[in-house]
Amino acid sequence: MTQVLRVWPLLTAMHRYDKSVSTRNRGAGTDIDAPILAYLIETRQGRILYDVGCDYRKIADPALRERYYTQRARPLPVPQMTDEQRIPGHLARLGLLPSDVDVVMIGHLHFDHAGGLCDVCGSDIHVHADELEAARAQADLGYFQDDFAGDYRWRVQRDEYELAPGVRAINTPGHTAGHMSLWIELPQGKPIVLAGDAADLTENIDDEIAPGLCWNDREDMALASIRKLKALARETDAAIWPNHDIAFWRTLSRGTAWHA
Predict the structure, then answer these.
(1) First to last CA, the chain
(2) Residue range 126-151: mean pLDDT, rounded
(3) Mean pLDDT of 175-204
(4) Among 139, 144, 8, which Cα is nearest to 78's?
(5) Dihedral through CA 101, CA 60, CA 112, CA 109, nearest 10?
(6) What is the CATH number of domain 4-259?
């Protein structure tokens, strides 16, 4: 039986970029607004945070912003993020502190998903071994090395496993070497699948379109992961939640939490 009590979607920033970043070989020249989401999962055994958003300092400080985003061979669009959107701000509004988070599950280590590790550095950090290896080797430009170079309590994983009864880590490589999604059994209603960047948009799921960036150009691996999530959703009657879809976020944000 699931031990999940509530799930809170957290908007950590907004990003505007060319649509082809999310849909491989589709949408070039069209800018889209994309939410950068994290999720707090409260269970009877503790609290799990899936992803942590960006490092706010690299956005707020002009010198750091230039260094990490604009003064690059291939400049990156700068996310729009406020101090209140940092993970500690979200936790504070729920009456919590970063120390109240027991486990941080990082779907992958790109800057918009792992930059906020500096705000929750006292928690156990779960990550796939292949992901950590690829990130440290700078497999692509989405990794900011100092985002994950601190003295973190890594819990390196390889197999799919339960973080708590009703919360299961799912291997979904393709966008990155060791990407992981989460399957969550809610106390009421359908289970949900947090796709992470295995599926940025509903379009990735419906049309089986790989993300624009694929590890080592392994589009086949990314598509296999999308199909794996769709099969899991069919088998468990789950809903797949895309990670950067503004229309989906607008629907999601009408609620405050999913709970018993």
Answers:
(1) 13
(2) 96
(3) 97
(4) 144
(5) -70
(6) 3.60.15.10
